[in-house]
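Example 3.
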Amino acid sequence: MLRTGSDAASLIMEVVPLVMSYIRTEMRNQRLPGLSIPQFRSLIYLYRHEDASLSQVAEHLGLQLPTTSKTIDALVTRKLVIRSEYPEDRRRISLKLSATGLEELKRSRHITEARLIEKMNILTAEQQSGIAISLATLRTLFVDLNKSKNNDKITGGSDG
Amino acid sequence: MLRTGSDAASLIMEVVPLVMSYIRTEMRNQRLPGLSIPQFRSLIYLYRHEDASLSQVAEHLGLQLPTTSKTIDALVTRKLVIRSEYPEDRRRISLKLSATGLEELKRSRHITEARLIEKMNILTAEQQSGIAISLATLRTLFVDLNKSKNNDKITGGSDG
DNA sequence: TATTGTTATACTCTATAACTATA
DNA sequence: TATAGTTATAGAGTATAACAATA
């Protein structure tokens, strides 16, 4: 069977919201207040990028600045993120994970991922591998959503 | 490189929200009021399942009944969906796409998919094919979210 | 009693517009 | 003028609880 970009696009439209719905429900069902998905994603970004600015977080998340500001604000209130000044450019803020934030990130990630891993293990090793590779490829396509369009072939994902 | 269910799960947590964010923005940026994602998904379901009940739609979408009720209500108000009685069981309602709903579904799908297809076409044919296969596999894992856990190996996707 | 669906209520996510402070 | 971020406001998406109608 020949599959084209159109098939892949159609499946993205169908499957991504489906899986998203699952993730959202899982995260909400954790005990302790838990993290929302944007909160969770923000923490992951800050885990990887020390001293990020709000704009950087917003761009990575594909959200507007006010939306991101509120999201981060909630995390600061919960003491999961530390917001401090950035002397080199006093318009900017500097964001980083607190020790508590790191713990919460690990805890939350572990619980939700555990359920996903169960599901993945229903699949064969080849299927799991194919999914990992495909998702890494998609990540390269969709990171930095607001950036320019690159027309070269992409060679799969790195990072981790 | 060996990839496990844990790699796949981790990538799902990272990439699915990323792509979701892209889809949401694209759908919102269409001219004419356009469809929200749950509305869009509801129409797709009704396109495939004539005379569905509200519960069936809710289960497919992985949403609670009141949430789904409101979503459908908006579609009925916009005359994209026809809600009628179901004489065999008068507690139920019968939902189906109107002619307008079908048109709107096609239009909305076409616009958003066109952007996705552009992105897919940055990739090689093999990458596109791998993504399509992986997503079809994921679909089989996540459809009917509230159903029992099946422990057999799954053989990829059918349907379309 | 159990099931199907709606209404009431509240909270989160998201956006745009208007604003402040800094460059 | 331009950029970084916040505040104000509004709308959509989601949930739980309480309810009505039917089985």
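Chain B touches chain A through 66 residues (CB under 8 Å). Confidence is low (pLDDT under 50) at residues 146-160 of chain B.
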